[in-house]
Design a protein that fits this description.
This protein has 109 residues and is an alpha+beta fold. Helices cover 30% and strands 36% of the residues. It has 2 helices and 6 strands, in the order αβββαβββ. The chain has a 6-stranded mixed beta sheet with strand order 5-3-2-1-4-6. The longest helix has 19 residues, at 4-22. The radius of gyration is 19 Å and the shape is globular.
Length: 109
């Protein structure tokens, strides 16, 4: 016969695994416009607007990865100055999530 403690442990472990699986980031690539970009308190914030039609999000703030913040800020500012779109790897469902990668796109006519 199984002990109640062991069954309880299995139930708790199952619930914990379910919670972890449901909180995993839904990271995806999105094409965006950069509407704001800049540093504050050592963090680089970049506000993105989805460029797809229909938009999956209007405008949201994201945070540059700490290890890449200078390069990401430079890329974001270049996109703002030149009017280019960027392609970003982000969890677009969560505001203030990290930008995992950002690439500037060539302007097409």
């Amino acid at each position: 016969m199984r002990s109640p403690g062991r069954i309880g442990s299995i139930v708790i472990l199952s619930l914990l695994l379910l919670f972890v699986a449901s909180t995993q980031a839904a990271e995806r690539w999105v094409n965006c416009y950069v509407t704001y970009a800049g540093p504050a308190s050592g963090i680089v914030y970049i506000k993105l607007k989805d460029a797809s039609i229909p938009e999956s999000f209007t405008e949201k703030w994201f945070i540059a990865l700490p290890s890449e913040k200078r390069d990401m800020l430079a890329t974001a500012l270049a996109a703002v100055v030149n009017g280019n779109k960027v392609s970003c790897s982000v969890d677009a469902d969560v505001e203030y999530s990290y930008i995992n990668a950002i690439y500037i796109a060539k302007q097409t006519q």
